[in-house]
Design a protein that fits this description.
single chain, 382 residues, two-stranded antiparallel sheet, 4 strands, 74% helix
């Protein structure tokens, strides 16, 4: 039926007037009915097919940024094409089954959430470090205040202090011994310097005598004897310098390293003693006060701090006693060897006994440096 109607509509004649214009056509109800029938059939077929296509497209999730909206009729210019990427708005996803719009959370919101979380974590870490430093400064200030108060009380005779008479006597002996050994070290270094200058003078004098013996034939023998004597004295003087330098080095190690290490431990012990007395006095003052709940809590805290300081004080006290004992033994052993070396070397040198002087150096395993060994090599100077 549809085909017959369409064929009829296609074969209808359109009258044209003498000017080439179409004339006024009489109304034809059959043509209008045929057009309406064709439009209704196409609409039904297209709607059923479009529904299936729309469901398939929405399920597959098209990229909205790649689609375009075309304005105008068929065959129009490209000016009517509007890319959807220019349309701003929140992205949505269609559920084809329930025909609902579901908002899609973008990557930017996740990044913003993660950055805010990381910044909060960094702020918490910084705040924790600041609080820790503040607590450390608070404890240091409180400890300094208590120790200063205890020190002033002791100096004015109003505070009590812990006294170990035997240990303090040993400490005082050590300090006096160190002062005397420092004086020995200073004098030994002065002797080394003066003797070194004398040896250099003898060396120069021997060279001058040898030169004059070559240029003065009438005094050749006399200049020659003196040149040989000065050279021999110079050689023995260098040997004695080796022994004295070894003596100075050993005394320096004993005074500035061994004794100094023990004195550093003693300083730590005295500081611990002052802290111990400060916390002990604090505990005694709290014990004489009221015994309410707040005061008892403070007394318990003071008791705990007092025990910590007491353990520290006793530990350092035992360390000082042990180091003083070993220092005394080491001092006797070292000084016995060094004093014997110094005596034998000086006696052999001024007695003119070269063999005994060399034997003394071998006895104490002292090796002399060759002349010029103290100077850096040309490679070290580069």
């Amino acid at each position: 039926m549809t085909d017959s109607i369409m064929s009829k509509a296609a074969t209808m004649e359109i009258p044209i007037n003498s000017n080439g214009d179409t004339g006024t056509l009489p109304e034809d109800d059959s043509l209008e009915q045929a057009a309406q029938l064709q439009w209704s059939l196409d609409e039904k077929v297209g709607s059923s097919r479009g529904t299936r296509d729309l469901q398939q497209v929405m399920v597959s999730g098209p990229n909205l940024n790649e689609t375009s909206i075309v304005s105008g009729g068929y065959g129009g210019t490209a000016e009517g094409i509007i890319p959807t990427s220019s349309i701003k708005g929140p992205a949505v996803r269609y559920n084809a089954e329930f025909n609902k719009r579901i908002p899609v959370t973008g990557l930017g919101s996740n990044m913003h959430h993660s950055s805010s979380s990381s910044s909060m974590a960094a702020d918490d870490a910084t705040r924790g470090v600041a609080v820790e430093k503040l607590e450390t400064m608070k404890k240091w200030g409180l400890n300094t205040y208590k120790c200063t108060k205890q020190m002033i009380s002791e100096r004015f005779g109003r505070g009590s202090r812990t006294v170990d008479l035997e240990l303090e006597a040993q400490i005082e002996v050590l300090r006096d011994t160190k002062r005397k050994y420092e004086n020995v070290l200073r004098l030994a270094r002065a002797l080394t310097t003066h003797f070194y200058n004398m040896v250099q003078t003898q060396h120069a004098l021997g060279d001058t005598f040898a030169d004059l013996s070559q240029k003065s034939p009438e005094l050749r023998d006399e200049f020659g004897y003196n040149a040989e004597t000065q050279k021999l004295l110079c050689k023995n003087g260098e040997t004695l310098l080796g022994a004295v330098n070894f003596f100075v080095s050993s005394i320096n190690t004993l005074v500035n390293k061994t004794m100094e290490d023990t004195l550093m431990t003693i300083k730590m012990y005295e500081s611990a003693r002052l802290e111990f007395d400060a916390y002990r006095s604090d505990l005694e003052e709290l014990s004489l006060g009221p015994k309410d709940a707040v005061a008892m809590a403070r007394i318990d805290a003071a008791q705990e701090q007092y025990q910590v300081q007491k353990d520290k004080y006793e530990h350092l006290r035992s360390d000082v006693i042990i180091k003083l004992k070993f220092l005394e033994e080491n001092k006797v052993k070292v000084m016995h060897k060094q004093l014997l070396l110094f005596h034998n070397a000086i006696s052999a040198y001024f007695a003119g006994n070269q063999q005994q002087l060399e034997q003394t150096l071998k006895q104490f395993n002292i090796k002399l440096r060759p002349p010029g060994a103290d100077k850096p090599s040309w490679l070290e100077e580069q």
